[in-house]
Description:
By secondary structure, the protein is of the alpha+beta class. The protein has one domain (31-111): 2-Layer Sandwich (Fusion Protein Consisting Of Minor Coat Protein, Glycine Rich Linker, Tola, And A His Tag, Chain: A, Domain 2). Helix content is 37%, strand content 19%. The chain has three helices and three strands, in the order ααββαβ. The protein has a three-stranded antiparallel beta sheet with strand order 2-1-3. The longest helix is centred in the N-terminal third of the chain and has 16 residues, at 2-17. The chain is globular, with a radius of gyration of 20 Å.
Amino acid sequence: MKNLLFIISVTMVLFAATDPVQGKNIPPTNKSEELSYIKHLIDQNIDYPKACSQFDCGIVKAKIKINVNQGISVLEINGNPVLTEYIINQLQHITVAYPRLIGRELICNFDFRKN
């Protein structure tokens, strides 16, 4: 009986140690993880604008930078004027959780073509 309890205890500890929820608070440690984190953050916060008509579709390309306030600044942006304005407004509301990413510059492509 003691062996069974020991095995159950060890199994529970192993499952708790590998819980994927715990890993979400670990800061990105390499460039690939940083890009993945920022892409996930942007994907969570930017959807197709509901106010746009069916003709306001296309691709927007933006060069962004993580600023000292851990926000996102748009350095350059190209695309449909309605969509570029929407992207700029949405990016201003995003906060990057990790100060290590301050100063990073990225190029993002936003695809607003309806399927």
